[in-house]
Write a structure and sequence with these properties.
It is a single chain. The protein is α/β, with parallel strands linked by helices. The chain is built from eleven helices and eleven strands. 43% of the residues lie in helices and 18% in strands. Helix 2 packs across helix 3, helix 5 crosses helix 6 and helix 6 packs parallel to helix 11. It binds 6-O-phosphono-beta-D-fructofuranose. 6-O-phosphono-beta-D-fructofuranose binds next to loops.
């Protein structure tokens, strides 16, 4: 393998730049060429390649977002799009590809390597932490740190005005961000897609908080929960308890931005090195992750399709500590 490509795809996540840096420098360390693909799979189709060397990735370890840019490419979902992408890879003399992304990106990467045989290694990059075969995805730690900082700030107002706040966090259809930050911020309750929280249960948790003389009550709401839209949940609570001053904060893309945490920088560095070495060792169609602090490889299809269970013990801990 003489020349490899690297791209970031799907939602950006803090730590992606650190991973690109690690991929580029590892390739250079082993005296191979490396090119960056701009705007993910769309860049493969549009022929947007940029040769990179160790200096091209200077001073990006600490930056959020992705300097290679990212996209969710509709064209790559079609066979014709992938064919064109492969043709361009061959023209650029690419012998392998490192794909940094989440679920959707790995679905595309798996199809691509299956159809055309170009070796592909995935690095898990998503704030959602929803990939099987790794304890942590890049960006999850940073995003949960941002949420924690924001909720700490919201608590100042909640506490000063005896208010109840519903804080909606990302995670698509999983509750990893919500559950971890519920524990970290001492939330009164957390509404998760994975746990069937009923309105009655929520109302009784809120009553418990006020009965226990809690002056600031925070409920973390995962965006993909099954109870409903966060504003509607708050309205229903206000209908039931008109004396409660309930507010809603949607944290949105704030969670995806900013400098990666120390944890994410180290994880990105480890996985970047592992991904390139794996490509050179002849591995393909796998995601490299970290399980119990060890680098592991999981077939892309398994990483996408296998259920990633939430640590329900954290839910129990959150409940015990929110009295
Ligand atoms: O997958 C990362 C994520 O931030 C999810 O948590 C969220 O549901 C989604 O992406 C938002 O996507 P977009 O940035 O395209 O609105």
């Amino acid at each position: 393998m003489k020349k490899i490509g690297v791209l970031t795809s799907g939602g950006d996540a803090p730590g992606m730049n650190a991973a690109i840096r690690a991929v580029v420098r590892t390739a250079v360390y082993y005296e191979r060429e490396v090119v960056g693909v701009i705007r993910g799979f769309q860049g493969l189709i549009d022929n947007e390649f940029e040769p990179l060397d160790s200096r091209s990735v200077k001073n990006i370890l600490n930056l959020g977002g992705t300097f290679l840019k990212s996209a969710r490419s509709d064209a790559f979902r079609t066979k014709e799009g992938r064919e064109l992408a492969y043709h361009n890879c061959k023209k650029a003399d690419l012998d392998g590809l490192v794909v940094i992304g989440g679920n959707g990106s790995f679905t595309g990467a798996h199809l691509f390597t299956k159809e055309f045989g170009l070796p592909v290694i995935g690095i898990p990059g998503t704030i959602d932490n929803d990939l099987y075969g790794t304890d942590f995805t890049l960006g999850y730690d940073s995003a949960t740190n941002v949420v924690t900082e924001c909720v700490d700030k919201i608590r100042d107002t909640a506490s000063s005005h005896n208010r109840l706040f519903f804080v909606e966090v990302m995670g698509r259809d999983t509750g990893f961000i919500a559950l971890r930050t519920a524990v970290a911020t001492g939330a009164l309750d957390v509404i998760l897609p994975e746990a069937n929280r009923t309105m009655e249960e929520l109302l009784s948790e809120i009553a418990r908080g006020f009965a226990n003389r809690k002056t600031s009550n925070i409920v973390l709401v995962a965006e993909g929960n099954r109870l409903g839209n966060t504003f509607e949940i708050a309205e229903r609570v206000k209908d039931h308890y008109p004396f409660i001053d309930a507010k809603v904060t949607i944290l949105g893309h704030l969670q995806r931005g900013g400098s990666p945490s120390c944890f994410d920088r180290v994880l990105a560095s480890k996985l970047g090195v592992a991904a390139v070495e794996a490509l050179f060792d002849g591995k393909t169609d796998v995601m490299c992750g970290v399980v119990n602090n060890e680098v592991t490889f999981t077939f892309l299809q398994k990483a996408i399709q296998n259920q990633v269970p939430l640590n329900m013990d954290l839910l129990r801990i959150s409940k015990i500590l929110s009295i």
